[in-house]
Amino acid sequence: MNSPLGIGPLSQESAPLRRKLVATLRRLIETGALAAGQRLIEKDLTAELGVSRTVLREALRELEADGLLAAGPRGLSVAVLAQGEAENIYAVRAALEAMIARQFCQRADAAGQAALTGAHHNLARAYDSGGLGAILDAKLAFYRALCAGAGNPVALDLLERLNARISLLRARSLVDPGRAQASIREIDALVAALLAREDARAATLAERHVAAAARAALAASSSPLNDSETAQ
User: Fold this and answer.
1) Model's pTM, two decimal places?
2) Which residues form the HTH gntR-type domain (predicted)?
3) 203: how many CB neighbours lie within 10 A of its CB?
4) 132-150 and 110-129 are packed helices; what angle lies between their axes, rounded to 10 degrees?
5) So what's the pLDDT on residue 30?
6) Domain 83-220 is in which class?
């Protein structure tokens, strides 16, 4: 039978596997296990991860679209983030987080405040543990609670995309003991302002927190960004 739309049957896609693969590769990049500039060899990845080349290519295309991978003459490699681009990303993030902080103060109900408080406690414990994976997961949960309380899922999507791009820089600064202690103090002050519904102060503290994070991340990447030792 001829199709009235002129197309054939859609192929079945192993979406859950692809999502898991994307998450795995993203975490490897975030933690520096796959370093900036490192070339990805498909046959090695399919063998190590136990997936088909088709599923792998789908996952790699998604990561390339997110800016984590870059195409070159020898294939895909982990993206190298230029300093100017990183500065722009942090500037956008600062403005976005300030807006979210204001919205949280204006919109969050008691359940939203409780969720943020719980996420804050979990983040503090993650920083105490010093494990990069735990910190990244707790950071994500914190921002999800913040955006949920602000009633702004669009902002969460933008934040996750921005943070994915600068994951090449964040890993090193997040596990630096000095920066970790300063970061959680900044977040403590921010959460206090959020719960007190001090919207102007919360917005200012959110901007300051991102500015401090930017300084730390860019200082940590003062050596060439494609140096495998930096894993950024």
Assistant:
1) 0.81
2) 15-83
3) 23
4) 170
5) 83
6) mainly alpha
